[in-house]
């Protein structure tokens, strides 16, 4: 029976090639997009799930409650998780990652400057599951002076030679022996590293409860509710932290984040990662694309119902029951969907490299053979086949054979349901078009927003460590001999990434008080080099020696937070208020107020800032002229090599660093745009098919009208009018949905664009033009047809 259904279905597909092509093309586009988005979503949901004990691992993060604000930090104090294990039996193990920053490794005369290097507890491989290529994970980081490298780094350092047992030296002259080599940390990991140094290799400078800079994880016993550990934060605060923070009115609490939720759900200050909102959005897009392709099938099947009416009537007269007819029509839609799926799989294979480029992913073809992916692909066939075939099957099988065979059946291809489906298609397409427009408006707004400083043509060199002041002055003077170098300045951090907070004793209207501010060290040339403005007082001066210890600058946000009406002269104690038995720390006065500038990307609000004066800091900013930039860059490299022969020349441009903060959102925007265009294409395919069938059904009417004197333009308007009405009906449906969706999305940004009326008007006009462009061909073709041909049988 099934083979007979499929045989008849195949004949019907071959008999009406145009109808089949339109449907298969629409379904292929829909399924291809659905599969690609499915790959993206499954990759996002797979983060950190490869660890054996993933469901027992939690990251410990900090919630800091200040009197006037609350901060959420991904780092905690060094002794915190160690203390948790000692005090709470349900904490089975812990591991801490101490950032080592960019580290220069030496092997003989070769130097390698590497990012993402951490010092870690030896328990790291007891908690996390990494694939060891060489070495013993149980002892790899036990001994002082041991290091575990990724395979990529090992090959970079040692080539084809065996890395295990080899030695490396860092710039601080510490020697490390390679005791393990692992495969690279999987891409679907929220935390990545290139090398791990044994934490036993060095004495930590800061092991107290005042600094929140260590990334820490705990392994809880099975069945442990993480809330029970979180609820004990007050005990740890009272015992260890209250002596430091209570006098400032600061409360500290810990939160435990499930490892598998960090990538999509974590919203720590300054942290970038995935977003569950995009997973929901792309899942919805995939669903609607399949739905729109299914709607095409429904529309075309019902529009051509008159063609199938005699077939249904004859089958019923011959004794076919309704269930058999339903099975026949469903088999046609499933067969069509299966053909589309096979074409889609081929397209996915061909398009995957391009999709990886657009999405920033590294999805491999092997994932197409994963059982869960094959199961979902099968589900897509069943879902799309039955959804698209259900209404036509029940509709066509309900025809009364008497009216069909008498010739009184006219079909209901232009019924209300079909019109509702067309309106649904264009409503979805219009929503996606408007959302895409606003997404790119927001991205453009952030990328072109005035940051409060000039980021164009600013070259940044990060020394990664303290540089000798004598050599910096020599380097600076040699650079300024080039007329194409306008300014050279130094700072403690890059202008685009000033993070961290420090406790200062600050003068308030009621006396001195400890408060947390962002500190940044700069020299006297920094403000001019970066194009920053002084709005009150003065900047730092090279000629004023007292500026080094006795002067600070603050930004407008700090003035606002403190409620200072006259900020100049206000006192700031650089190391917080003195404790019992302590000498008073150095006290400086505010000598100037800097106009607010963004210390990080626009995902972060401007924070109160204290600027300190120093020289020869780790980051150098060089403002260069736009002309002959390559020549100027070569000159800078030459002077660097002469001044720092023992350091690798590494640089970046400040505008590129700035744009990298929005890279993930740009990629998501590109995905959304691509699939928005394809959504409109699917809708237009269905509209094109409907326009074709409509003109076929009205060909005699058109012939009569032309004989009676109707012009080509009037016929085109006649045929286009009904479709124009359907598209117009989609406007009041789509606009409110798009507005409220985008308004909610924009609320997540501290700085956001406005939603302009012209976006909705432009999107509606564009949709209408696309509609007209789709149906105009068939309309003009019908209007130009010789009426003699269409009326020949009368």
From TrEMBL:
Lineage: Bacteria, Pseudomonadati, Bacteroidota, Cytophagia, Cytophagales
Membrane topology note: Multi-pass membrane protein
Alphabetized PANTHER family for the sequence: ABC-TYPE MACROLIDE FAMILY EXPORT SYSTEM PERMEASE COMPONENT 2 (PTHR30572:SF18), MEMBRANE COMPONENT OF TRANSPORTER-RELATED (PTHR30572)
UniProt-recorded name of the protein: ABC transporter permease
Segments forming domain MacB-like periplasmic core: 20-231, 427-629
Alphabetically ordered keywords of this record: Cell membrane, Membrane, Transmembrane, Transmembrane helix
Superkingdom of source: Bacteria
Major location (coarse): membrane
Subcellular location, record wording: Cell membrane
GO CC term (a single one): plasma membrane
UniProt entry tagged with the keyword Transmembrane: yes
């Amino acid at each position: 029976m099934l083979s007979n259904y499929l045989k008849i279905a195949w004949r019907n597909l071959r008999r009406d090639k145009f109808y089949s092509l339109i449907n298969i093309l629409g379904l292929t586009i829909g399924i291809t997009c659905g599969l690609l988005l499915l790959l993206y979503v499954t990759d996002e949901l797979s983060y950190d799930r490869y660890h054996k004990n993933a469901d027992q691992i939690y990251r410990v993060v900090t919630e800091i409650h200040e009197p006037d604000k609350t901060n959420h930090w991904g780092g905690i104090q060094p002794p915190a998780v160690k203390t948790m294990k000692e005090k709470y039996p349900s904490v089975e193990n812990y591991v801490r990652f101490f950032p080592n920053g960019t580290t220069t490794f030496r092997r003989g005369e070769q130097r390698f400057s590497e990012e993402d290097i951490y010092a870690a507890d030896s328990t790291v491989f007891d908690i996390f599951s990494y694939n060891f290529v060489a070495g013993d994970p149980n002892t790899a980081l036990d001994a002082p002076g041991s290091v575990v490298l990724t395979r990529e780094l090992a090959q970079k350092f040692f080539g084809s030679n065996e890395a295990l047992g080899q030695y490396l030296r860092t710039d601080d002259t510490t020697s490390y022996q390679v005791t393990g080599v692992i495969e690279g940390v999987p891409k679907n990991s929220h935390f990545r590293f290139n090398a791990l140094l044994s934490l036993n290799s060095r004495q930590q400078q800061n092991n107290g409860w005042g600094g929140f800079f260590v990334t820490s994880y705990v392994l809880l016993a099975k069945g442990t509710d993480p809330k029970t550990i979180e609820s004990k934060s007050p005990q740890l605060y009272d015992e260890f932290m209250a002596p430091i923070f209570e006098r400032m009115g600061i409360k500290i609490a810990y939160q435990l984040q499930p490892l598998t939720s960090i990538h999509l759900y974590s919203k720590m200050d300054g942290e970038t990662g995935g977003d569950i909102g995009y997973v929901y959005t792309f899942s919805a897009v995939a669903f609607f694309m399949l739905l729109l392709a299914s709607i095409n099938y429904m529309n075309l099947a019902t529009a051509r119902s008159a063609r199938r009416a005699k077939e249904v009537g004859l089958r019923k007269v011959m004794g076919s029951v309704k269930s058999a007819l339903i099975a026949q029509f469903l088999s046609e839609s499933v067969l069509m969907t299966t053909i589309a799926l096979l074409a889609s799989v081929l397209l996915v294979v061909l398009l995957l490299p391009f999709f990886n480029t657009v999405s920033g992913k590294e999805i491999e073809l092997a994932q197409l053979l994963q059982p869960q992916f094959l199961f979902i692909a099968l589900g897509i066939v069943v879902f799309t086949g039955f959804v698209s075939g259900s209404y036509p099957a029940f509709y066509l099988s309900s025809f009364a054979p008497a009216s069909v065979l008498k010739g009184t059946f006219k079909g209901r291809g232009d019924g209300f349901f079909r019109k509702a489906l067309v309106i649904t298609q264009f409503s979805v397409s219009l929503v996606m078009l408007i959302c895409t427009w606003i997404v790119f408006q927001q991205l453009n707004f952030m990328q072109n927003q005035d940051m409060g400083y000039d980021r164009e043509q600013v070259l940044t060199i990060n020394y990664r460590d303290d540089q000798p002041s004598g050599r910096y002055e020599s380097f600076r003077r040699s650079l300024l001999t080039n007329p194409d170098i306008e300014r050279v300045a130094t700072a403690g951090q890059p202008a685009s990434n000033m993070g961290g907070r420090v406790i200062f004793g600050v003068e308030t209207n009621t006396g001195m008080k400890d408060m947390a501010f962002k500190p940044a060290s700069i020299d006297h040339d920094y403000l001019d080099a970066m194009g920053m403005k002084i709005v009150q007082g003065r900047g730092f001066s090279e000629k004023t020696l007292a500026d080094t210890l006795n002067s600070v600058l603050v930004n407008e946000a700090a003035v606002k937070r403190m409620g200072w009406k006259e900020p100049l002269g206000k006192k700031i104690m650089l190391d917080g208020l003195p404790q019992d038995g302590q000498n008073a720390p150095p006290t400086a006065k505010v000598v100037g107020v800097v106009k607010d500038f963004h210390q990080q990307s626009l995902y972060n609000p401007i924070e109160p800032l204290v600027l300190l004066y120093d020289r020869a800091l780790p980051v150098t900013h060089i403002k260069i002229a736009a002309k002959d930039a390559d020549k100027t860059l070569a000159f800078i490299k030459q002077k660097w090599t002469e001044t720092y022969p023992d350091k690798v020349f590494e640089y970046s441009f400040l505008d590129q660093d700035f744009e990298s903060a929005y890279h993930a959102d740009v990629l998501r925007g590109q995905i959304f745009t691509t699939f928005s265009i394809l959504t409109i294409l699917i809708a237009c395919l269905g509209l094109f098919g409907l326009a074709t069938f409509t003109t076929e059904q009205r060909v005699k009417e058109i012939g009569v009208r032309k004989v009676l004197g109707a012009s080509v333009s009037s016929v085109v308007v006649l045929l286009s009018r009904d479709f124009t009405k359907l598209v117009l009906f989609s406007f009041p449906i789509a606009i409110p949905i798009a507005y409220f969706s985008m308004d909610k999305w924009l609320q997540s940004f501290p700085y956001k664009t406005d939603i302009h009326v012209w976006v909705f008007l432009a999107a509606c006009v564009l949709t209408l033009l696309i509609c007209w462009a789709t149906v105009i061909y068939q309309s003009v073709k019908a209007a130009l047809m010789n009426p003699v041909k269409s009326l020949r049988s009368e």
